[in-house]
Amino acid sequence: MSEATKRLRRKDLRQPDEFVTLTGQVAEWARENSRAVAIAASAVAVLLIAFGLWSWVAQSRAARAARDFYAADELFKRDQWDQAEKGFVELADALPSTPYGRLARLYAGRAALRGGRSAEAVGHLQAFLASPVSDPAIEQLARMNLGVALAAQGQLDTARQELSRAVEMDGPARGESILELARVEEAAGQNDKALEDYQRYLSDDPNAVARDLARTRILALGGTPPAVAPPSFPGGGAPQIAVQ
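^ thats the sequence. predicted structure below, dont judge the formating
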């Protein structure tokens, strides 16, 4: 047998001995410190139970918030503004840390505004915007509604600020924000600015929902509405009328 083979076998045989020795040392330490081991195991068990309980409570709260939000939203869709506002406020007060609980404050403001209670709407919307809003589209909606509520309270300068911020944000409420800003400018006697905003509203979307209103206000302010684009048909040209 070569010397190299002898060295290899001795090394291989030494490794299990070291493993067994280490295992024995750990077992001996555990016997000598059984109380510490038991305490550590209990602590781990308590942490696992606490985490499981916290997870269950969080899921339960989130499910309740979603359920309550959609219940209030159904009232909102039925134009039951008082009941909807009450439902949203109760949810926002009870579960403010949940996503639906935070969103409920915005919808409480919208319901109050639709119900003609602009002062309550301002309070709800300002409370919603007091914390950072991660979604620009949601923040745009909140600022647009806040601007309308402030204008209804006669706070035209502050309303203009909120609506201008909403116009500059990226979201589906941009067009409506421009229209509301035009109304505020007109109410403040800034007819030139109002005319620009009505023109911008139609330039952004010639087929906007309130296009007829915008055109009427442009004419009333002495402006000229943009030309109405002719309807387009598949394939171009005029529609073909079948002769029976």
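The two ends are 109 Å apart (CA to CA).
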